[in-house]
Amino acid sequence: MQQLNFVEPGTLEWREAPEPRLQGAGEALVRPLSVATCDLDKLLVRGLAPTDEPFPFGHECVAEVTDVGDAVTSVEPGDVVSVPFQISCGECDRCRRGHTGNCERVERMAMYGLPMGTNYGGFLGDAARVPFADAMLVPVPDGVEPSAVASLSDNIPDAWRTVGPQLAERPGSPVLISASGATIALYATSIALALGAGRVDVVGGSSWLRRQAEELGATLLDEQFPKRLGPYPITVDASGDPAGLACALRSTEPDGICTSIGIYFTETTPVPLLEMYTKGVRFHTGRVHARPAMPEILELVRDKRFHPQRVTAETAAWDDAADAIAGHRAKLVISR
Length: 336
Ligand SMILES: [Zn+2]
Ligand SMILES: [Zn+2]
Fold this sequence. Notes:
The protein is an alpha/beta fold. Helix content is 26%, strand content 26%. One zinc ion binds next to loops.
């Protein structure tokens, strides 16, 4: 089958790849229908994230189930499902704790369509193998367009984890988001407002992102990151910029919660640790564990409280994927 590969920054290419086959009774094969670019994809395509080899591309998709092993009980051929980008068994101690990005039964960082860890293939192809179908696949409810939730595999739960549990703990709180061009900030804005945040303030961000954030209901603050704002009980660093990270941390109120989805590719990044210590800040950084939050997010979409399609900046047809991805500027959704 043909599979789209990242070749080098700015260049993607369809290449022949072996058709995946079921390798166990608990597995499924899926045919991707709608694929989204992740914020990290944009950095890879622009040469702003480290990678030195070609790889099968695409790790966010909604797909149709085409075949299942004998032991699979939760899905059947024809079902439309969201496929989390991380491979997880659902049964080991870490998966049971909800830490599905660090499943003990697979290689470290076993994922689809990324050049780090073990790559289980990209979603821009006719088939993908799902090793733990019952644990991984999440049926998409009737009435929800596949293209609307193509990013449910990764970026949408990545946004949800910055505000969802935090607002459950502190209902009605205002939220501060340090932004850049990453669309996770926009998903976080929408989800926070859907979950009853008192207000979402966005600091920093590209001009495109600031416009979008305002349309989604955010209040825009400074374009540059000041030393400190607020304080806020809930802060989010989606900037990938040390100044945005420091601003989010300094703007967190005593015993507040700050979550960073930013990827800092340098060995060390300065953080205002003394201020964090004296105030008490609960800071979390790390890869998202995508799978556990997916059903809850789909309920928000089904109930029309959260409209992820409003974050989609560009769309393209399947056959145009190579050029569309090479030139994309923000969240791109490719559909058959
Ligand atoms: Zn991603
Ligand atoms: Zn596991």
